[in-house]
Amino acid sequence: MNKQKTIELNKEFTKILRLPATRKFFEEFALESAKENLSYEEYLHMLLEKECDTRYENAKKSRIRRAQFPYNKYLEDLDIECLPIDAKKKLKILTTLDFVKTGQNVILAGNCGTGKSHLAIGLGIKACMEGYKVWYTSIPSLINLLKETRSEKSLRAFENRFLNYDIIIADELGYISFDKEGAELLFSHLSLRAGRKSTIITTNLSFDRWGEIFQDEIMTAAMVDRLTHKSYIVNMNGDSYRLKETKEWLAENNLN
């Protein structure tokens, strides 16, 4: 069999076996191995290592993509000096992701623009990169989805998926109020995860104001009790990042 025919067959085999990195690099590595006088075992090791590394990287990208983050914000991009004091204190323990292993919640509560969503998404991306299954949603979007799945009689299937995530990031609790149906659906689904899987919640409201969105004192008390039990509660009240950036932009452009 001539060399070209062998190469073509090898490419076909890698497609059948789903080895994209091997298909891409086997010729290049063969030339390199011949040049360096490497053994067959060393050549095979190079190929398999590249395949594994590629699959590992692709898996990370896939988990981040499936998490449905609205944008990618990394922990490394956080301006730690501008974080509220309590966030600075708890950042080190949060970034270990130990709370995921123990199924504890994280509640980031404070005024707008202090980095709540950035921190939540940053933790979510780090978790994706470490092999955890993450899903991001805003609270209003989650409630709409819950109502849709109920009307389509697929709520049970959604519950199973909802419970399967290692982390759910529920962003923007308190920005929009919702009706009784929405409150009950949210309560039941977040309660399902309590003590079992981690949920990261961002909110602009203190706990004593959650009744404004749930509109039911008993449900509000139960929700706060279940979500805060053994949770990391981070006080995110502080100066607004966005206001600071706006002032800097105005100064740079001589517009103030």
- Rg for CA atoms: 24 Å
Alpha-beta classification: alpha/beta
CATH superfamily of the largest domain: P-loop containing nucleotide triphosphate hydrolases
Indicate the mean pLDDT. 90
How many structural domains are formed by the residues? Answer: 2
Distance between the termini: 76 Å
Helix count, per DSSP?
12
Helix-strand pattern, N to C? HHHHHEHEHHEHEHHEH
Estimated helix fraction = 55-70%
- Roughly what fraction of the amino acids lie in strands? 5-15%
Give the SSE layout.
Elements: H1 3-16, H2 20-36, H3 40-67, H4 85-94, H5 98-101, E1 106-109, H6 116-129, E2 134-138, H7 139-151, H8 155-164, E3 167-173, H9 180-193, E4 198-203, H10 211-214, H11 217-228, E5 232-235, H12 241-252
Parallel strand pairs: 1-4, 1-5, 2-3, 3-4
Helix pairs in contact: 1-2, 2-3, 3-6, 7-9, 9-11
What does it look like?
The protein is 59% helix and 10% strand. The chain has 2 domains: 3-67, no CATH class; 75-244, 3-Layer(aba) Sandwich (Rossmann fold). It has 12 helices and 5 strands. Strands 2-3-4-1-5 form a 5-stranded parallel β-sheet. Helix 2 (20-36) runs antiparallel to helix 3, helix 3 runs antiparallel to helix 6 and helix 7 (139-151) packs across helix 9 (180-193). It has helices at residues 3-16, 20-36, 40-67, 85-94, 98-101, 116-129, 139-151, 155-164, 180-193, 211-214, 217-228, 241-252, and strands at 106-109, 134-138, 167-173, 198-203, 232-235. It has 256 residues and is of the alpha/beta class. The longest helix has 28 residues, at 40-67.
